[in-house]
From TrEMBL:
It comes from Devosia enhydra. CDD domains: SUMT (cd11642). Signal peptide: none annotated. Pathway: Porphyrin-containing compound metabolism; siroheme biosynthesis; precorrin-2 from uroporphyrinogen III: step 1/1; Porphyrin-containing compound metabolism; siroheme biosynthesis; sirohydrochlorin from precorrin-2: step 1/1. Gene3D superfamilies: Cobalt-precorrin-4 Transmethylase, Domain 1, Methyltransferase, Cobalt-precorrin-4 Transmethylase, Domain 2, NAD(P)-binding Rossmann-like Domain, Sirohaem synthase, dimerisation domain, Siroheme synthase, domain 2. This is Uroporphyrin-III C-methyltransferase / precorrin-2 dehydrogenase / sirohydrochlorin ferrochelatase. It comes from the Bacteria. Residues 119-144 form the Siroheme synthase central domain. It catalyses: precorrin-2 + NAD(+) = sirohydrochlorin + NADH + 2 H(+). The lineage of its organism: Bacteria, Pseudomonadati, Pseudomonadota, Alphaproteobacteria, Hyphomicrobiales. Residues 208-416 form the Tetrapyrrole methylase domain.
Length: 456
């Protein structure tokens, strides 16, 4: 951390004069920014080239004179010609802080990039050194904060006394405020008070968020998932969710792996259900983090049923499911006009013959198949699909570790897969079957029938 050469402050400008010197686009940009406040904006320039009529300002078409500076809180010089330089001298003589656009060395103060969630304002300043960086960071923060945040912040302020009267416990209060300012639905005081009453009634009643973590890359998490992970008291996660994603949760949240890797069930589903109900019953906010999307082969149904039965509030946050990550990795459209009219997400593991017959006929009539949990039985599944009439020439693509940096793709046909290639790279895999697969970009893919030799 370096030494600050400037000190950030927020200047009260409501009702005060702010003078902008210049009549071009730069001046207009400053006026636009200032118009977000209730400042009394004055513009002076002998060269009025732009139209200020959409703002509540009265531009005066002459060079600024010393009395223009009387009582001004700030001066912006948006045109550093002879007029602007004279204005700078006048501002300094009057002792008014002055900003000269694009001339950091002439500025008494800089204007930061602003994220506006009034009354909450976030100002990002690079002390004039890199406005581009400041703007970039601003865009990221913009994306992180719900648009209604400011309104919610005001509501939080206006409810303070009620909250103190209704909720004694400090942690419960913090939760209420967190829930309020991050709520995507609450828009007015009535909604906020209803939320307050719920929190007061529950005092310390927990809840469970079933969160889709996506296929394993940190930046394929949704913003909502990320936000809730920051609020969780406990994170209950599957084996398939990489450590880096679990790490993104609140630092002091407890983490419980309930990993289910194939063949190793450290927790049974019933035990997980019981665990979720118990944790929430203790008043904790539980992030149940699942790979991909919780509603796709995520056993979400059972967990939701258990929570409902126990009367515990829950929320589901969708995630990018593995098949969609695989489609993105290989630029393979899963639906394609005149080729594939739909897509079936199916589990190869545990599929009986009737199911396979059904999928073969769906794929035969132009649907893409996305098969989950099928790596170890890939050859057998392919053979059975063929036995049910799916042509051996049907394109097949396999993506291991979809959505992650170490993904590996292979491409071939159903008959190639059926003929016994069984050695896949380490990691979870999705098998895509259907004519649309051939429309993808599989340039980096290994031919499926060479998988065996490669590994050998
Ligand atoms: N809910 C998850 C699926 C969980 S079932 C989702 O929506 O993606 C586990 C199966 O998902 C694995 O056997 C594999 O078929 C698939 N899978 C999960 N993550 C994957 C990944 N990164 N790449 C490829 N397949 C994946």
């Amino acid at each position: 951390m370096g030494e600050l050469t400037t000190f950030p402050v927020s200047v009260k400008v409501a009702g005060r004069k702010v003078l902008v010197v210049g009549g071009g686009d730069e001046a207009l940009a400053k006026v636009r920014l200032l118009a977000k406040t209730r400042a009394d904006i004055h513009v002076a320039s002998s060269a009025m080239d732009v139209d200020f009529s959409e703002f509540a300002v009265t531009p005066v078409s002459r060079a600024p004179v010393p009395c223009d500076f009387l009582g001004a809180a700030l001066v912006f010089i948006a045109d550093y010609g002879p007029e602007g330089r004279a204005a700078e001298r006048m501002a300094r003589a009057a002792g008014i802080p002055c900003n000269v656009v694009d001339r950091p060395s002439r500025c008494d103060f800089y204007t930061p990039s602003i994220v506006d969630r009034a009354p909450l304002t976030i100002a990002i300043s690079s002390e004039g050194a890199s406005p581009v960086l400041a703007r970039l960071i601003r865009a990221r923060i913009e994306a992180m904060l719900p648009p209604a945040l400011g309104k919610l912040a005001s509501l939080a302020g206006s409810l303070r006394h009620k909250v103190e009267a209704l909720i004694q416990d400090g942690a419960t209060r913090r939760r209420f405020y967190e829930a309020l300012v991050t709520s995507p639905v609450i828009a007015d005081a009535t909604g906020a008070e209803a939320l307050l009453l719920r929190h007061a009634a529950a005092e310390a009643k927990g809840e469970v968020w079933l969160i889709g973590a996506g296929p394993g890359a940190e930046d394929l998490l949704t913003l909502r998932a990320q936000r809730l992970l920051q609020e969780a008291d406990v994170i209950v996660h599957d084996q398939l969710v990489p450590a880096a994603v679990v790490e993104m949760g609140r630092r002091d949240a407890e983490r419980i792996p309930v990993g289910k890797t194939k063949g190793h069930h450290s927790f049974s589903q019933a035990q997980i259900n019981t665990l979720l109900v118990r944790l929430a019953g203790e008043g904790k906010r539980v992030a149940r983090l699942k790979s991909g999307d919780p509603m796709v082969f995520g056993r979400a149904g059972e967990e939701i049923a258990a929570l409902r039965k126990a009367g515990i509030p829950y929320t589901i946050v969708p995630g990018v499911t593995a098949a969609l990550a695989a489609a993105a990795d290989t630029a393979s459209p899963l639906t394609l006009r005149k080729v594939s009219s739909g897509v079936v997400f199916a589990t190869a593991h545990g599929a009986d013959d009737e199911a396979l017959r059904h999928w073969a006929s769906l794929a035969g009539s132009g649907l893409s198949l996305a098969l989950y949990m099928g790596k170890s039985i890939a050859a057998e599944t392919a053979a059975r699909l063929m036995a049910h009439g799916l042509p051996g020439a049907t394109p097949v693509g396999i993506v291991v570790n979809a959505g992650r940096a170490d993904r590996k793709a292979s491409l071939g046909t159903l008959s190639g897969l059926a003929s016994g290639a069984g050695q896949f790279p380490q990691g979870p895999a999705v098998i895509l079957v259907g004519d649309a697969v051939a429309a993808g970009d599989w340039a980096d893919a290994l031919p499926i029938d060479q998988l065996q030799q490669r590994v050998a």
